[in-house]
Amino acid sequence: MEHLITFTQAHMQLIFVIVLMVFVGIEVIGHVPSVLHTPLMSGANAIHGVVVVGAILVLLNSDPNNYLSLALGFLAVILGTLNVVGGFVVTDRMLEMFKKKPQQKK
Q1: Which of 3, 40, 53, 83 has the fewest CB atoms in 10 Å of its CB?
Q2: Are 67 and 19 in contact (CB under 8 A)?
Q3: Percentage of the chain with pLDDT > 90?
Q4: pTM (2 d.p.)
Q5: CA 12 → CA 20, 21, 91, 104, distances in Å?
Q6: Exposed e or buried b for every residue in 23-57, given b needs 16+ CB within 10 A?
């Protein structure tokens, strides 16, 4: 418990910034109209390839005997990849809605 208190005291500014980012993020996303929400989120998910690259870099620099960091890094790569693929799938579905359908002959 003492270690947790010293960590909190040493990183008080970082904790404050993270809490502030959470509240600002909730406020910004809450005010986006529902019509724009899906395109923005699908594009954001597709951009999250940066997360996958970061997770791979963390995995490469982690200690081979630290199984917790290896497991969390592997999980980050898997979930980041799913997020990227999901973003592209949703974007593709939205773009399909705007394509003209071929005319049928009567």
Answers
A1: 3
A2: no
A3: 18
A4: 0.56
A5: 12, 14, 39, 66
A6: eeeeeeeeeeeeeeeeeebbeebbebeebbeebee
